[in-house]
Amino acid sequence: MTLQIAVAVLEREGCWLLQLRDDIAGIVYPGTWGLFGGHLDPGETPEQGLRRELQEEISWEAAALSPWFVHHDPHRLLHVFRGPLTVPLAALELREGQDMVLAPPALLGSGRVWSPKLGEERPLAPSLQRAHARLERGPEPKPEPKVEG
Known about the structure:
By secondary structure, the chain is α+β, with helices and mostly antiparallel strands. It has a single domain, classed as Nucleoside Triphosphate Pyrophosphohydrolase. The protein starts with a strand and ends in a 12-residue tail after the last helix. The model has no long low-confidence stretch (mean pLDDT 91).
């Protein structure tokens, strides 16, 4: 069975909300910057799982979340959503991870982001790199309509 994960690109004033994952052995990509979200529980849709994770991780309920893209590899199915972060960073309660920041997407191209709490730069998790790469590529081209001749 493929592991399913849902994460959110939450945007405020042109910046993305990032989570610095804990430095705990055994978790996926410890100590890297990623997007808030996580594994789906049995029977959850990707959006339901993402909404639950946002409550658990930052004590926040998103008003609008739109599916952006899905990435599949041999081990997991990643559902990436986008939506507005409708509150200031200070209104969020970080319950999972060691830091959170709002970062402009242009900064993500460097592959590292500064953590104010740790006082150092940390690398990006693959899911965040994938979302940034998708933004840089732009929207997927629509197929050309077939013309009968």
